[in-house]
Write a structure and sequence with these properties.
Elements lengths: L4 H9 L17 H13 L3 E4 L6 H18 L3 E7 L4 E7 L15 E2 L4 H14 L24 H5 L13 H8 L7 H6 L18 H15 L3 H13 L21 E2 L9 E2 L15 E2 L1 H13 L6 H10 L11 E3 L4 E3 L2 E8 L2 E8 L4 E7 L5 E2 L4 E2 L1 H14 L12
Antiparallel strand pairs: 1-3, 2-3, 2-12, 4-7, 5-6, 8-9, 9-10, 10-11, 11-12, 13-14
Helix pairs in contact: 3-12, 4-8, 4-9
């Protein structure tokens, strides 16, 4: 069975923190291929830039060291990151945009952002609730009948991953199809149908479980209620108002806009061998993870997600922020999942994992700092029980540098 650890298992079990200074290496990459990638990366141009006087040179050097170390540690082709404060910015890159080339990673590069898509899906749902077109207490059977817990699981449960509906990204026919041919196109209905015969995992509202099915269902609700596509909804409601001109919803297209990062993965058959995942079909993820974006656009999104500016009313944004205060297990005050938004010790954002790519966007409301990390590999480190994603490791290191001491913990549910 194909293990979609980057779409479900990493998020379910949580991520152990590996700071950039830890110096341990990933054991999940093929050593010869990984070494070749690292060697190619070392020949590519990279480095950092920042606003003069905003982030001091010593801190800038530390930030660059973080992403250099993560690239080597995880044997990733490339890493890029941005740190934006109220005074200025730092942008850095390390490695290459494509394995076996010297093509540098640049802020213009497009990348698949995986589950960060969920934050957009949830935002549109919250807008539709504000417009009176749907309600938090609506059960999913109203829109997509026949799901496990369909007559009791609500829109609010879907947003907060508390439905008890199994995830379609583990042990289902669509996963088997994708493992055999990752260019296969799927419809949202096929995805949710693959778990209709499975028993519910728990009563809605009693537990947290990261199920991608929840967010595919929310996407289906959006299209049914509005009568227009996800691409149109995201474009009109989110991307255009925020000026996110380089962000797109690919649907069944396997093409990324130029320029782009080429991603590598050990997923699909034969599992464990490193493959070029760049043009694998994103329709398997739909509104749980299909969106494509860039570093600058994700900066805009991180600010909007953390503040609500340009996308939600102040009251609805406050409701969303308050949703991460949930006590439903295994959420905790340090790490919790709200309405399409994750709290990591005060940082608000989400991780994004899809075969070939790993991304993090987080905003700290207390300081106004936003951090974005993009890696063109989904190959994890750590252990099978506690896998560590490269972009998460990079975020932890960057956050530690910016804090000047101590890093926020990421040891509970993630996205």
């Amino acid at each position: 069975m194909l293990n979609f650890r980057t779409l479900s298992a990493v998020a379910t079990v949580g991520m152990a923190v590996v700071l950039a200074s830890a110096g341990c290496s990933s054991s999940t990459s093929d050593s010869s291929t990984g070494s070749a990638s690292a060697s190619a990366s070392e020949t590519a141009s990279g480095g950092s830039s920042g606003s003069a006087g905003a982030i001091d040179p010593a801190s800038a050097a530390q930030l660059q060291q973080v992403i250099d170390d993560v690239r080597v540690q995880f044997k990733a082709p490339g890493v890029q990151a941005g740190v934006w404060t109220g005074d200025g910015e730092w942008i850095g890159s390390s490695g290459v945009a494509e394995v076996d080339t010297t093509q540098p990673v640049t802020p213009a590069d497009h990348s698949r952002i995986g589950s960060i898509t969920k934050t957009m899906t949830a935002t549109v749902i919250l807008q539709l609730i504000d417009e009176g077109k749907i309600a938090f207490d609506d059960v999913i059977d109203t829109y997509v009948p026949g799901m496990p817990n369909g007559s009791t699981a609500t829109i609010k449960n879907l947003l907060e991953m508390q439905t008890g509906i199994p995830t379609y990204t583990g042990g289902t026919p669509v996963v088997d199809q994708y493992a055999a041919d990752p260019t296969t196109a799927f419809t949202p209905q096929q995805l949710v149908d693959s778990v209709k015969d499975k028993p519910a995992m728990f009563a809605p509202g009693t537990q947290f479980f990261y199920s991608n099915t929840n967010y595919v269902l929310l996407g289906m609700v959006i299209e049914k209620v509005t009568g227009t596509s996800i691409a149109d909804n995201f474009g009109e409601r989110l991307l255009t108002p925020l000026g996110m001109t380089q962000t797109s919803v690919p649907g069944t297209s396997t093409v990324l806009p130029e320029p782009f990062l080429s991603g590598v993965s050990t997923q699909t058959n034969p599992e464990g061998t490193i493959k070029d995942a760049t043009n694998w079909n994103p329709s398997l993820a739909f509104t749980a993870g299909e969106v494509i974006s860039t570093l600058d656009d994700l900066h805009k999104w991180g600010v909007a997600l953390g503040t609500g500016e340009g996308i939600l009313t102040p009251a609805t944004q406050q409701l969303r922020v308050d949703s991460v205060k949930t006590t439903v297990p295994p959420n905790s005050p340090e790490r919790s999942y709200g309405m399409g938004i994750v709290n990591t010790a005060g940082w608000l954002g989400h991780t994004g994992e899809i075969p070939g790519y790993n991304t993090v966007v987080n905003h700290d409301p207390a300081t106004g700092t936003t951090i974005v990390v993009m890696v063109n590999s989904d190959i994890t480190g750590g252990t099978e029980a506690k896998p560590v994603a490269p972009a998460v490791a990079a975020f932890e290191g960057l956050a530690e540098v910016m804090a000047g001491a101590g890093s926020p913990s990421a040891s509970a549910p993630s996205g």
